Amino acid sequence: MRNKLFVRKHLSQITAEEESGEHKLKRTLGAGSLVALGIGAIIGAGLFALTGIVAGEYSGPAVILSFLVAALGCAFAGMCYSELASMIPISGSAYTYAYATLGELMAWIIGWDLVLEYAVGSAAVSVSWSSYVISFLADLGIHLPARLVTCPFDTVKLANGAMAHGIINLPAIFIIAGISFLLMRGIKESSRVNETIVVIKVAVVLVFIAVGLFFIKRANFVPFIPPNTGHFGEFGLSGILRGAGVIFFAYIGFDTVSTAAQEARNPKKDIPIGVIGSLIICTILYIIFAFVLTGMVNYHLMKGDAAPVATAINLTPFPWLQKVIKLGIICGFTSVILVLLLGQSRVFYSMSRDGLLPKLFSDIHPRWHTPWRSNLLFMAFVGLFAGFLPISKLGHMTSIGTLFAFIIVCAGVLILRYLHPAWPRHYKTPWVPFVPIAGILVCLTMMLSLGVETWLRLIVWLAIGLVIYFGYSRFHSKLQRKKG
Asked: What's the gap between Cα 22 and its chain centre?
């Protein structure tokens, strides 16, 4: 029994499945599209919100160093993702890698958790998308019915001045449904939309940088590393480290590139380019953005400021820039939702293909070549979260599962270097075992810093998953059936 739970997929079997015609996805994505996919997932509200929060509360102008430390942690995981993706060019990301290294039970656990992480993440982003769209339309003189853009847990002020509970957040449901149908239509079409959105939001970031450079005050960089207040994490070196822990979550998303491996034209070469390329581009943008923002606004003024970018723009004679930045944030949210829903459906597709979930979730549409039934399921599942839960409750369900996935991937590199040292690697993680071990330690530290509520949510969700695994999945597992 124990051996069956930890039965592993051999790399040759995974390769054979990839080359077979069964469950075939359409290969249309090149390296550029995969880089855009990574940028689409990484650059979201984190750039516009977290930069000010970390500067005002933890790092001061040294938030630039916090970005570098966080990028280093992501780089460890990113290099490990790239090696495994070049060896195992299959959809499913960390789920598939765990199946080849740690066995079926661990693969199920990580796949089941990633499904929730992507669902919660896309729902939370859709609620934020809704609030920015409502605000942007209000700037244009268009006002939507207050109770139809607010979930039942939140109260709103009506036109007559009375307070009332919301009914449903229709814009949040609308964006989830719209992107889900786009993903069902085809990966090529979805990629084109994502690339367009990425160009817009990167352009907005560059406009802010270009304008802001002329309004930097050198005095705002002094002291560059503010002295510690006597409490760990409040400025000084410890503040830089704590800031890095917060900033880390602004980078999460690059891992979704590997979920599209089976739709990449040359996954062994292009997936590493997509992962590492998007990380490098976003790190450069983040650091320059942080430099400009802290140069324009003194870090003291950003403490408790929910919109530090707006504060910075108010220092310029360009009020139109407010609308441009708001549009950039909306675009940023849109591409993040698209990539998260894409990653979610591909993980579910891979689990279904292996027999751990019903076959209907890995059925490919005859014309669109997408796992459309998985997209339909998650459109309903995520849509309910988005329409009826507030951002505060969704926000508490942080990315603990994503960090867990990073740990599995880093461990997977170590295990495969031992089990299959001669297997072809089109990209090799440098400085093994230092890089994988460093990635494990950094991600584990981040996990341990998360709150008790987050851990309880993870435990409850995994308990539900284990009931499904022992009640259904292990009896329908194709691998276990082959093993007899």
From this structure: 29
pLDDT of residue 393: 52
Helix (H), strand (E) at residue 13: helix 11-19
Please state the domain extents for the chain: 30-478
| Confidence at residue 166, expressed as pLDDT on a 0 to 100 scale | 80
Task: Give yes or no for a contact between 412 and 97, defined as CB atoms under 8 angstroms apart.
Answer: yes
List Cβ neighbours of 381 (8 Å cut-off, separation of 6 or more). Answer: 119
Predicted local distance difference test score (pLDDT) of residue 396: 47
Q: Which two tokens stand for residue 323?
A: 């609308």
Burial (CB < 10 A; 0-12, 13-18, 19+), residue 147, is middle
Residues 6+ apart with CB under 8 A from 119: 344, 378, 381, 382, 385
d(CA 111, CA 465): 10
Q: Report the pLDDT value the prediction gives residue 91, as an integer from 0 to 100.
A: 64
Question: Tokens 């292990």 correspond to what residue?
Answer: 474
Angle CA 430–432–437, to nearest 5: 120
Domain 30-478: which CATH class? Answer: mainly alpha
Phi, psi of 216 (to 5 degrees): -75, 140
pLDDT, residue 191, reads 74
What token pair was written down for 431? 């400085």
Q: Quote the DSSP letter at residue 121.
A: H
- Distance, in Å, from the CA atom of 377 to the CA atom of 372, rounded to the nearest integer, reads 9
Q: What is the pTM of this model?
A: 0.78
CB 42 within 8 A of CB 326: no
> In which residue ranges of the chain is pLDDT below 50?
1, 395-396
Nearest to 179 by CA among 383, 369, 393: 383
